[in-house]
Amino acid sequence: MSIENNILVKLNEVGFQQNKKWLVKGVSLQVERGKIVTLIGPNGSGKSTTAKIALGIYKNIEGQVEKFTNNIGYVPQKISIDWTLPLRVKDFMLLTDNLKDDSLDEALTLTGVKHLKDKNLGNLSGGEFQRVLLARAISKKPELLVLDEPVQGVDFTGEIALYELIKKISEKLNCGILLISHDLHTVMTATDHVVCLNGHVCCSGSPKDVARNNEYKALFGEQASQTLSVYEHKHDHEHSNDGEIKKN
Amino acid sequence: MFDDFFIRALIAGIGIAFVTGPLGCFVVWRRLSYFGDTLAHSALLGVTIAYTLEFNIAVSIFITSSIIALILVKLEKKTNLPGDALLGLLAHSSLAVGLVAIGFLTFIRFDIMGLLFGDILAVTTDDLLTIWIGGALILLVLRFIWKPLFASTVNYELAEAEGLNPDRAKAIFTILMAAIIAISIKMVGLLLITGMLIIPTAMARNLSDNPQKMVIFSIIGGLLSVFIGLFSSLEFNTPSGPSIVAAALVLFILSLFKIKQTIQLKN
Question: Given a cut of 90, is residue B188 above it in pLDDT?
Fold first, then answer.
């Protein structure tokens, strides 16, 4: 089934409710090998929830999730390491997989934190920790990477470098990436497909298409839309009633 | 040189320390010390059932504690009470029911102090077999679930997302907790088993910078506590459980000096 079109994970009309409140509903999307799919949306729009549904962390869901790989790397949005557990970077790298030292070094070098290998996880700065999280997720050479705000707390130059790295990883490993980002700039540069969430899929398509979508503009404002479509000449199209784009 | 009973107690204690070391680490990491206490308190009920039905004590405790653990899981889902209140409810009510049941069993003479605080005189050759075979089984199973259990201790969602089945590991770990209580009750006593689980581990935390080291130091701490505790129990005629736990406390206090040194070195 999966081989024919390289689909790694497919969500079909999924929804999840907690305390009788729907966090997301009716979300359909798919991640293919070698493609980057980005979820954007305001706070509380269900981006992380959607990722967790795709990963199988939430179990009592509506709709179907079809997963065609078990080799998954995940960078969660929030992770706190308890101080009662002494954990070095290299112990953390081996958390879910028994990897060779070379693979650890390679991944840590890619994210620029090899020098922290023997350091205690509790002593890292936010940005350093984020780089370690990313290194851990890529070290096992996953088929599917799920990255929930992977560069939070990383300095600006580092952020660009890491997004370039993510792009490079998707090409090199030919893995599919589900990326969650609040950073609209990055959506433009690194993504094949954007899904804009607001409890439901409010619009989706290529970054350019989404930027011109009216619902998207209503959510993020005209300025955000301009940021995204900055390379585009303005007024080269019109919208039909349902937000569909008509080229002039 | 030593009496047979003392040699038996020593062999039993060594066996227990090997198991409480690694299990204790997970109790500390997962913040389960009160959970361990609850299971241990319910062991008294297991003992009375064993006497009434003339059943193997360790097996009876194991079954009772496992049932209490199951009830706890159900209650957590069905009520709005916080976890610690439920633990307190189960711990003290099962202890109370156990003591009331003992009151009814007038035809049997109970050594309640021995049950609560451990009694080295009570360790038989059969108990040694229970401890060593049971202990080996516990360690074997723990070895098997180590990866998912450890990963989910660090972060549940990571473990679940990357396909390690943390729920199963957690359920098996609960059974292992009931098992260690069942095999160590005669030596340490039901009020002090949690102490044996967490105090050597707390000492180990002060001395280690990685999880493997912490497990090893925790075992060493447990072994030292057993040796020192049992010898002083023999020397001063004190109950074995409190002597072992008090020895563990002394080791913990000594380990605090090591932290002080490291902090000074850092500054």
Answer: no
| Binding-site residues on chain A for chain B (CB distance < 8 A) | 52, 55-57, 70, 72-74, 76, 79, 81-82, 84-88, 91-92, 95-97, 120, 146
In this prediction, residue A2 carries a pLDDT of: 46
H helices of chain B, in order, are 4-29, 33-53, 57-78, 83-104, 112-117, 125-154, 156-161, 166-188, 193-207, 211-236, 240-266
- From B29, B155, B164, residue closest to A84, measured CB to CB: B29
Q: What is the mean pLDDT of chain B?
A: 90
CA separation for the pair A158, A175 (Å, rounded): 22
Percent of chain A exceeding pLDDT 70 equals 85
Residue A222 has pLDDT above 90, yes or no: no
Where are chain B's structural domains? 4-194
CB contact under 8 A, B157 and A57: yes
* Residue with the two structure tokens 């109790």: B27
| Other Cβ atoms within 10 Å of B76 Cβ, number | 13
- Laid out side by side, the sheet with A62-67 consists of A21-32, A7-18, A62-67
Whole-number percent of chain A with pLDDT over 90:
36
> Is B153 in contact with A91 (Cβ distance < 8 A)?
no
> Is the confidence at residue A228, as pLDDT, over 80?
no
Query: From CA B233, how far away is CA A60, in angstroms rounded?
Result: 54
Q: Which fold has domain B4-194?
A: ABC transporter involved in vitamin B12 uptake, BtuC (1.10.3470)
**What is the separation, in whole angstroms, between the first and last Cα of chain A?**
39
Q: With 0-12 CB in 10 A as exposed, 13-18 as middle and 19+ as buried, what is B249?
A: middle
Phi and psi torsions of A178, nearest 5°? -105, 110
Query: Who has greater pLDDT, A55 or A221?
Result: A55
**pLDDT the model gives residue A232:** 38
For the A1-71+143-151+175-230 domain, the top CATH level (class) is: alpha beta
Q: Does residue A227 carry a pLDDT above 80?
A: no
Nearest to A96 among B159, B212, B214 (CB): B159
Closest to A134 (Cα-Cα) out of A119, A146, A116, A124: A146
Q: Evaluate whether B74 touches B224 at the Cβ level (below 8 Å).
A: no
Closest CA to A51 of A64, A39, A69: A39
How large is the ipTM?
A: 0.83
| Burial letters A143-173, b for 16+ CB under 10 A, else e | bbbbbbbbbbebeeebbebbbebbbebbeeb
Which residues in chain B have Cβ-Cβ distances shorter than 8 Å to A81? 154
Identify all chain A residues contacting B209, using CB atoms and an 8 Å cutoff: 86, 88, 120
Mutate to test the interface with A, among B157, B160, B213 (most CBs of A within 10 A): B157
